[in-house]
Amino acid sequence: MGGNRREAVQPPGVARPGAPYSPVVVSGDLVFTAGQVAFDEDGHLVPGGIGEQTGRVLDNLEACLRAAGCTLGDVVKVTAFLADLGDFEAFNVVYGARFEAPPPARSTIGVDLPGGILVEIEAIARRATAGERGASR
User: Fold this and answer.
1) Is residue 1 situated within a structural domain?
2) Domain that holds residue 90
3) How many domains, in total, are found in the chain?
4) Nearest-CA neighbor of 37 among 17, 20, 10, 8?
């Protein structure tokens, strides 16, 4: 895929959106994920608190990135939305364990999330170009 075109990707294992958006969009070497929440592949919210939800959100985010040829290591920017900023420390423990140093740039925002959702995360990643992949061999 080249230039400024964009391609939508539906990752396996991630619930299909019921609204008009794509879970992942690839444009050139950039990968953009929609906000991922703690839904299982059938679209049901996983049980548990902020730790369990953050873990599932990051699983979904990884699936989105993998479908676009990336990993968490390719992420350059994350925006995280928390229903309760009092959950920040517990969220950070799970989040920090999943990203290698140096972690991506991140903004964390307190918002009113619907239906028991405690956390939502979106990311921007950069895929290695063919030349970069060849140089790392």
Assistant:
1) no
2) 7-135
3) 1
4) 17
Instruction: Say if 81 falls within a structural domain.
Output: yes
For residue 22, what is the domain's CATH number?
A: 3.30.1330.40
Q: Does residue 44 form part of some domain?
A: yes
Phi-psi group of 43: left, alpha or beta (phi > 0 → left; psi -120 to 50 → alpha; rest → beta): left
Express each pLDDT in 51-76 by its tens digit.
999 999 999 999 999 999 999 999 99
Measured CA to CA, the distance from residue 92 to residue 37 in angstroms comes to 16
Burial group, residue 73, by CB count within 10 angstroms (0-12, 13-18, 19+): exposed
What is the pLDDT at residue 18?
Answer: 85
Please name the amino acid found at residue 110. Answer: G
pLDDT in tens, 91-114: 999 999 999 999 999 999 999 999
